[in-house]
From TrEMBL, chain A:
It holds the Pfam family DUF2849. Residues 94-104 have a biased composition (Basic and acidic residues). It comes from Roseivivax lentus. It comes from the Bacteria. Residues 83-104 are annotated as: Disordered. This is Sulfite reductase (NADPH) hemoprotein beta-component.
Automatic annotation (TrEMBL), chain B:
Residues 119-272, 407-546 form the Nitrite/sulphite reductase 4Fe-4S domain. Keywords: 4Fe-4S, Heme, Iron, Iron-sulfur, Metal-binding, Oxidoreductase. One of its GO terms (molecular function) is metal ion binding. This is Sulfite reductase (NADPH) hemoprotein beta-component. Gene3D superfamilies: 3.90.480.20, Sulfite Reductase Hemoprotein, domain 1 (3.30.413.10). The keyword 4Fe-4S applies. The lineage of its organism: Bacteria, Pseudomonadati, Pseudomonadota, Alphaproteobacteria, Rhodobacterales. It comes from the Bacteria. Residues 52-111, 347-396 form the Nitrite/Sulfite reductase ferredoxin-like domain.
Length: 104, 559
């Protein structure tokens, strides 16, 4: 039996600002994980990753990150992705500046 | 201080011009990331978790007020109003955007600074004792020779593609405040038999995945032989170093695999060749550099005001007790300004604080500032009579914390709040430990205790040589903190020993508290510091306190 595929999102850093971005269903970039496209099929995920990697003028270091689908969109499966989504914990910088009160 | 020559200025300007064009080509799509990455790293530009990060070298930790003001200006104009001082005497800006970096580099060049060789497999920023030129116990100022090494190593054609990065530290004092034993090459200036100076050369030290204490390669190298000898060492390693495996590529592994005697033999053989190629021009240059580091004109003035202030103001007295060090000149002190206010991020300074530091350096400190590897700022030359006024200004700007060398003077690397390589966070652990001991009000009772925290095995937070070292790891998707005890960064450097299994983020602060409680209960007296007590009683009592304490169940409940 094939191993169950953990759902993924395509993520990386924006070329110009360096901040964390995610790929959406329409092929745009979002700064908000909740708006990212959740990929639950492995072959599909690889194709979407290739698509992202073919846009080097927009994203740096694209990769697939594990997520857990939830009622408010995908949630990070690992704490590193939770920090990438939120920003640093010592100052309300990065994404926290734009979304006051955003929860980890 | 050393001033750039026309050659230095021209070199940096040309590099900046090239990098500006490279950034433009990356943005317009002519360069791929694979092509661009080595170019940006050569200029100190990393891509971290949330943003780009620019690492700027502060050679041997020395700055003047003009440079500090420019760093403040950069922080405000192109970053988020602060900078982070690191254990390698660099400053990191955590939030630049790619298109601004060429302007930042030009702004740095205006004050004779750059980010060249702060990354990549090259010889990195040369670090030195942060009390250089001021310490009472100093044999000689290490900065002239550090500057000579900087000039020799910058863009050295043979050493631009080394097996791995390469770090050199220099101390001019037997107290070794530069952690020389944890560097690829550590240089210790010693008195030679003829009364002059010589260099004890350590090689193969390093922390990280496989921590090693440096071994003595040469006991007393004459100064004139220093550069050819360094060139011989790096050259031998450049050929022998394990390029097949990046975890085995550092010189510490080369020394370990071949043995110090074989390395010495190879270095001596190579030295015979490199020595012949040095014409002596390096010594002429060194003499010129030395003149640039002539000590300031110290003044002779009464110190009654200082003693009166100490008697009258307990806050001032506490600060002078913990933050001053002995100066070589009569009536002077070395001031350490703590960047470790309780609950603050270790090593961070706001643009305003940087300007205040620049102002007080100009007004009271012969225009000199140093950055310590302990992530504090040093005013190396302050007359005692100026200390009350200085302290008042520092206090007004959150820079008056009296905790140098104490439990809250914690080294912490950026960890997973910024660093892309991290396995766990380190900043919040440092913040919580500092706040906890501040609340307990036992910091001064505890005395000298160095806690050092790294957010991954690369050990930028020097945890192996902390009296208490903390290493953040990822254990099955949860942050976990391993503790080592008994590390020592000084002249008799030692690596800490692991206590046992690690602790969760919730447990790590109580665990440190139990270690400190054990020390207080076991110490022979207030004069016996943590390290001495640990050496006398060993690991067992600490282990017992950590792992078989009676409140274990309570801890399990809390977890
Ligand atoms: S020790 Fe690890 S987490 Fe900390 S700064 Fe170094 S590489 Fe990053």
């Amino acid at each position: 039996m094939p191993r169950a595929f953990t759902p993924k999102v395509v993520t990386g850093n924006a070329l110009l600002e360096g901040d964390v971005i995610y790929l959406t269903e329409t092929g745009d970039w979002t700064r908000d994980l909740a708006e990212a496209e959740v990929l639950s099929d492995e072959a599909d995920a690889q194709l979407r990753l290739l698509d992202a990697q073919s846009r080097p003028g927009e994203i740096v270091g694209a990769y697939l990150a594990d997520v857990t689908p939830g009622p408010r969109g995908p949630e990070p499966a690992h704490f590193r992705e939770a920090f990438r989504r939120k920003g640093p914990s010592n100052y309300a910088h990065g994404k926290q500046e734009h979304r006051p009160g955003a929860e980890l | 201080m050393y001033r750039y020559t026309d050659f230095d200025a021209g070199f940096v300007a040309e590099r900046n011009r090239q990098f500006r064009a490279q950034v433009a080509r990356r943005i317009d799509g002519s360069l791929t990331e694979d092509e661009f990455k080595p170019l940006r790293l050569m200029n100190g530009l990393y891509l971290q978790l949330h943003a780009y990060m620019l690492r700027v070298a502060i050679p041997y930790g020395t700055l003047d007020s003009r440079q500090m003001r420019q760093l403040a200006q950069i922080a405000e104009r192109w970053d988020k109003g602060y900078g982070h001082f690191t254990t390698r005497q660099n400053i990191q800006f955590n939030w630049p955007v790619l298109g601004d970096v060429p302007d930042i580099l030009d702004a740095l060049a205006e004050v004779e600074m750059h980010a060249i060789q702060t990354s990549g497999n090259t010889i990195r920023n040369v670090t030195a004792d942060h009390f250089a030129g001021a310490a009472a116990d100093e044999v000689a100022d290490p900065r002239p020779v550090a500057e000579l090494i900087r000039q020799w190593s910058t863009d050295h054609p043979e050493f631009q593609f080394l097996p791995r990065k390469f770090k050199i530290a220099v101390t001019g004092s037997p107290a070794d405040r530069a952690v020389t034993a944890a560097h690829d090459i550590g240089l210790r200036i010693v008195r030679a038999a003829d009364g002059g100076i010589a260099y004890q050369v350590l090689v193969g030290g390093g922390l990280g995945r496989t921590p090693m204490i440096g071994k003595v390669l040469h006991d007393a190298l004459p100064e004139a032989d220093l550069l050819p000898y360094l060139e011989a060492i790096v050259s031998v390693w450049n050929l022998l170093g394990r390029r097949d495996n990046k975890y085995k590529a550092r010189i510490k592994i080369t020394v370990h695999e071949h043995g110090i005697d074989e390395i010495r033999r190879l270095v001596e053989a190579r030295f015979a060749e490199t020595r012949a190629a040095f014409s002596g021009i390096d010594q002429v240059m060194l003499a010129g550099i030395r003149a640039a580091f002539a000590p300031p004109a110290f003044r002779d003035a009464p110190v009654d005001a200082y003693h009166a202030a100490r008697d009258a103001d307990p806050v001032f007295r506490a600060w002078t007790d913990s933050n001053l060090a002995a100066h070589r000149a009569e009536g002077y002190a070395i001031v350490q300004v703590s960047l470790k206010a309780h609950g603050a991020t270790p090593g961070d300074a706001s643009a305003l604080q940087m300007r205040v530091l620049a102002d007080v350096a100009e007004r009271y400190g012969h225009d000199e500032l140093r950055i310590s590897h302990e992530q504090n700022v040093v005013l190396p030359h302050v007359h005692l009579s100026d200390l009350p006024a200085l302290h008042a200004i520092l206090r007004a700007h959150g820079l008056g914390t009296a905790n140098i060398g104490k439990v809250s003077d914690i080294i912490a690397c950026p960890g997973m709040d910024y660093c892309a390589l991290a396995t766990a966070r380190s900043i919040p652990v440092a913040q919580e430990i500092a706040l906890r001991f501040d609340a307990l009000k036992i910091e001064h009772q505890v005395g000298d205790l160095k806690i050092k925290i790294s957010g991954c095995i690369n050990a930028c937070g020097h945890h192996h040589v902390g009296h208490i070292g903390i290493l953040g790891l990822d254990r099955a998707g949860v942050e976990n903190y391993q503790i080592t005890l008994g590390g020592d960064q000084g002249p008799d450097a030692a690596l800490g020993q692991r206590t046992g299994p690690g602790f969760s983020a919730d447990e790590i602060v109580p665990a440190v508290e139990r270690i400190v409680e054990t020390y207080l209960a076991e110490r022979a007296g207030a004069e016996e510091d943590f390290l001495a007590t640990f050496r006398r009683i060993g690991m067992a009592p600490f282990k017992a306190a950590l792992y078989d304490a009676p409140d274990k169940e309570a801890r399990a409940d809390a977890a």
